[in-house]
Amino acid sequence: MLNRTLLMPSLSESLFYKEVHLLKPISFDKVFQFEKFNSLCKGFVQLAQYSEVSNRTDIFELQKGSGRRWTVQKDLDQLRQFGKHPYDEYEIIRIVGKNPFLWHDHWPVKDYAKIFECLVLREEISREADKVVSKIRDENRKFSQEGNYLSLQEVSYVAVHMRIEKDWMIHCKKLEQRSNISEICSSKEQIMQRVGNISGLKAPIVIYLAVADDLLEDNSILTGWKEGLLPFEKKKLGVLDIYKKQPYLIQSAIDYEVCLRSDVFIGNSFSTFSSLVVLDRTQKMIAMGTRELCGTNVRWLSYAYNLEGESNSPRLWATNMSDSSLQAISYGSNRISCR
């Protein structure tokens, strides 16, 4: 609408506990393939380098409105205004405000999800994820050789985004109080129990635990699992060095890719990380022509462990691509879609 190019953003973490040293912004092109993004997203959104800007000082700040009274129509009117004279004379427009982008309520999920078709990890990050996935499958291969166990043609592995780190526990408890919802925080024991109750998992099966190691205070996450569920975290899997040499955000990107590739993914519906993994997986199912997104035999099956499903198992989870709001994806929800 503005007929402008988005200057390449920096990516950063949203930790808020004591890990200030982990808050190191990373340029977009250090995580994703820049040229690939522009190629795939042509006609939707384009990125530019700051080096392409001739005048970086003459910037006009566009103050966005905030609050629920700031409507879709006000957004559109303001954008149309800033595409005309005299604003079109400024090389850079910086959008600022408490909520500097369009309210998530204004974005249909299917439009927002187009971005995921354009986000391709840099090859070196993808190769690191390859190593982790290969290690997981090697463990499955070991068990398949010990008896009538899982073959490589069956479920390769399950990934659990186990959100029990200290930063999350502080955040989720405050969120439960503010929203008056008691289904946000999940204890280690609840996660283990619900994952163990998923019907159809052919044991023994490797469970990869995606956790932020630097923020984890519980050293017993490998104990207490149902017999036949074989939990592995980075250290036990032998991939800790792969992660430790990377910045915190790149570690998250690797874990995201490992979770995305899993045959079964189980996360927390109030976690943005989990929500985006499920969105990505749902999009892949639709691209494959899958009509029934939540049948227990579908590819890219996902669950939310913080919400109770049948027989105290996690609730089946797929993104409602026809939803008119990004609320569930951006801030989480207990009203997840599966249909």
Question: Can you summarize this structure?
Answer:
This protein is 32% helix and 14% strand.
Please, could you describe this protein's structure?
The protein is an alpha/beta fold and 339 residues long. It is 32% helix and 14% strand. It folds into 2 domains: 6-113, no CATH class; 123-330, no CATH class. The protein has helices spanning 34-40, 72-81, 109-112, 123-144, 166-179, 188-196, 234-237, 240-244, 248-261, 272-287, 327-330; strands at residues 6-7, 10-11, 26-27, 47-48, 59-63, 92-96, 158-161, 205-210, 229-232, 264-267, 301-308, 314-316. The chain is globular. Keywords: Carbohydrate metabolism, Fucose metabolism, Glycosyltransferase, Transferase. GO terms for molecular function: glycosyltransferase activity.
What is the helix/strand order? EEEHEEHEHHEHHEEHHHEHEEH
Q: What structural class do the secondary elements suggest?
A: alpha/beta
Strand content: 5-15%
| Multimer state | single chain
Strand runs, count:
12
- Structural domain tally: 2
Distance between the termini: 34 Å
User: Number of helical runs?
Assistant: 11
Which range best describes the helical content: under 10%, 10-25%, 25-40%, 40-55%, 55-70% or over 70%? Answer: 25-40%
User: Could you tell me the mean pLDDT?
Assistant: 85
Largest sheet properties: 6 strands, mixed
Round the Cα radius of gyration to an integer and report it.
22 Å
Outline the low-pLDDT stretches.
147-153
User: Which strands sit side by side, in order, in the main sheet?
Assistant: 9-8-7-10-11-12
GO molecular function, one term: glycosyltransferase activity
Organism: Buddleja alternifolia
Family: Belongs to the glycosyltransferase GT106 family.
InterPro entries: AtOFT1-like, GDP-Fuc_O-FucTrfase
